[in-house]
Design a protein that fits this description.
Layout lengths: L1 E6 L3 H12 L4 E8 L2 H11 L6 E6 L5 H11 L3 E4 L6 H11 L2 E4 L11 H14 L8 H4 L2 H7 L2 E4 L7 H12 L3 E11 L13 H8 L3 E5 L2 E5 L5 E6 L3 E7 L3 H9 L5 E7 L2 H12 L8 E3 L2 E3 L1 H8 L13 E12 L2 E12 H8 L3 H18 L7 E4 L5 H10 L4 E4 L7
Helix pairs in contact: 1-14, 3-4, 8-15, 14-15
The chain binds NADPH dihydro-nicotinamide-adenine-dinucleotide phosphate.
The site of NADPH dihydro-nicotinamide-adenine-dinucleotide phosphate has 31 residues, from helix 1.
Amino acid sequence: MARLLIIGCGGVAGVAIAKCCQNSETFGEIEIASRTLSKCDAVKEKLQPTTKTKITTARVDADNVEELTALIKKYKPDAVLNLALPYQDLAIMEACLRCKVDYIDTANYEPENTDDPTWRAAYEKRCAERGFTAYFDYSYQWEYKKRFERAGITALLGSGFDPGVTGVFSAYALKHYFDEIETIDILDCNGGDHGYPFATNFNPEINLREVSANGSYWENGHWVETKPMEIKRVYDFPQVGKKDMYLLHHEEIESLAKNIPGVKRIRFFMTFGQSYLTHMKCLENVGMLSTSPVMFEGREIVPIQFLKTLLPDPASLGPRTVGKTNIGCIFKGKKDGKRKTIYIYNVCDHQECYKEVGSQAIAYTTGVPAMIGAALVASKRWKKAGVWNIEEFDPDPFMDMLNKFGLPWIVDEDPETVE
Ligand code: NDP
């Protein structure tokens, strides 16, 4: 039985921990370690009576490699599941290397301070050379590949839903349905309604940074960048209905372009209602989405962090959110010389998730795959020294576990496509 150290204790972690507790055959023991110990203790108190998995807690500052290293050395886990923020990815990877312990996360590295001159210079060089301007990219984590290989340990990057399940769907489509995939359209639809005029479904700072940035997609070997929300389509989502969706940059486009041989185009669309977009534009126009500190009454504040304190906590949306999510991928390509299109997707009901684990579907659809990735790595079923994206592993055991742990999927062999 495996021993897992989980870092972070927010919305996604809450679900992943509940799911580890449902999977006591794999996880004999887990430790929850985060910045605020009381949150870890509250989760332990709620879940310990329901499970055979032994839960312990600890406090850690995951920006501090020394503290992380000491914690890992003391707990001696089989793997570390990083469910803190993308800002902590590199520090946690560094500590895993020092302790020779496998690593799993759900989001690629992004710097907290985008004004840091060293980071800024590297970013501007990358924008000019590679043609997309998102603050995050995989280069920082891929850079660790050789060191992880030498240490004989596995890093599994992006084990949430998107990135995560979307990469597993891609590997599964390639393995079972296609000789060659030509295009991938990833569609992320949240048909849920929480009743607030404006709220984000996961960490507001990370969510708003992503959504207010330029869009981009991969075509014929290079990036095509768009203005934010420039490309809009309408799609009739199974079990949800017709929704407006907008093209965004998304991190799995970068890894899938590298890992799906011969793929010609990859796009990512997310649905947004008009109220969300109007609020976001207004907040952006007045400077509330800025990540650069400003002086307020004698002290420095970062506008987007201040905004986070005003917005509803995503973890509090569970009881009030009704409706469903539908997330999946449309693949076009060839099999045995014939053209073929399939759509693999999951539908998840916000209220069902709330009944089961006390969270809305966005945290659920991320927390379940985080547990599955951690289970496959910690049990050594997925074992390859180096740093890997999720589509580089055998998708079959992951797809089986999605069905078993609450995210069943559907393959539609005659779907509506996106213009
Ligand atoms: P939350 O803000 O709810 O939780 C983050 C947690 O990390 C909090 O418990 C926080 O502690 C902790 N934390 C932050 N900084 C530190 C630190 N320096 N040291 C220790 N702990 C720290 O975020 P979410 O749960 O919504 O998101 C978690 C991750 O999941 C993010 O990386 C997000 O990008 C990713 N994600 C991935 C998705 C996917 O499909 N791949 C979808 C949605 C999210 P404290 O409680 O003290 O603030």
